[in-house]
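We store chain and fold; example below:
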Amino acid sequence: MPEIAVAEQARPIAVVDIGSNSIRMVVAQVRPDGSYEVLDRLQRPVRLGHSTFVTGRLSESAMDAAIAILRDYRRVCENYGILHLRAVATSAVREATNNDAFLDRASISADMDVEVIEPAEESRLTVSAVKSDLDGRLDLRDGSALVVEVGGGSALVTVLKDGRIAVSEGYNLGSIRLQEILGTAGEPPDRAADIFRRHIASVVAAMQRTMPLRGARHFIAVGGDARLAAQIVGKPRPGTSLVEIAPEALDGFVRKCARLSPQELARAHGIPFAAAETLTPALIAYLALLKASRCPAMLVTPVSMRDGLLLDLARALGGQEDPETVAGAVQSAQAIGEKYRFDTRHAGQVAAIALKLFDALRGVHRLSVRDRLLLHVAALLHEVGGFVSSRAHHKHSYYLISNSVIAGLRRDELGIVALVARYHRRSGPKSSHPEYMALPRDRRMIVNKLAALLRVADALDRGHEERVKDFTAEVAGQELIVTVPAAEMILEQRALERKADLFEEAYGLKVRIVETGAPPAPPPVEPA
């Protein structure tokens, strides 16, 4: 996400969620304290998942309809005076082989940059919204909890351990996907429901071999289908925004829905036809997962991934980062480092130095708190390539990081981290490096600035001896002065001479080490 100026007054923001069965938009107003108030919610049906899940491509008609909706949403943004918008697409667009064409058309025709997000990012955003809404009113730190969302394209199942994401996986149990791959359109309602049950049961049985469904204390359901069931057969859970549905009540409601066609469901519950189409397969999936977990009830939350998107935008306007996202990304990076047998002490030392330099240069680099997190991860992982070979290990680091998954980081952010780690030694970025040149200019500048800080930090721990611990860094004139206690910094000085070139180029500053308490240099010896 690009840097956002800190909010000084309430201002409108918007998020757009491009799903398999509809495109939704939420407009909110961010208050100066970082909280937000929803001003408007919009939803328009469009069957993007139909063609993707059958042919692997987005059809022209589906793309035309989606682009028309995005144009309408762009006009809404203009009417509200929205300057900060985040638009994301999930499985239907993610899995389409022609998704580049759709993304280009969204950018050109609707002036909307759409970000295709992975299931891990969907999970992070959803869990962030759930935890913010609960605000401690349900203890998620004691044992494990399941957060489940059955969407149109996939079912996202997330396991929380002690309040943090431990495992998150997407499964092909989305309601639209099930209808398309099982070919239930022409079947009677009860027959279609039976087909759904059999297929879902086999998938859940396979899931149980790798996903720790059983033993969770709480089963938290996210999604419109679950919310509809909660309205009809649920009971409010005191002290929270959650609605509790007993397994028996959910089972009974599913059986009633299974006897009705989508048209009949729409009339019976006063819902749009598009919502009625997804109801039965989605609820069968929720019920199967609830029974597999053996939790006493399904707790339905009113929030969604879109609330997580709003939280992210609101935090960015306030110049903040979600502390749990930071902790999760760092923990994930450390786990990857341990997998590739990194030098724990050196990685931690370089990261500490790099972050201190980042903070000292805030007025110069004008980077965001999100960029600080990317630097932190890159510093921790800059030498993992040594696991492959000590020769050109910086290039191996790039490869290993690029092909890893780090909790809380998007795919494009992981690419920046990989490049920053790649440039911690030898040459800096060059126009002959295709991965670097493929980035937009603003992202290349972020790579330059972060890699420059990492090179200086790595030089200051050249001997892996943690000599530089208590130091200060400040800009004076055309220099960055790093003041350290006297410690015979010969190796570090020479390393800095080799590696400060990118820093001087990116920041226009020279780096100078000053040792305090060092004995004065001996006077020159007079020739005899």
About this structure: Confidence is low (pLDDT under 50) at residues 1-7. The CA atoms of residues 145 and 270 lie 33 Å apart. The longest strand covers residues 36-45. The longest helix spans residues 60-80.
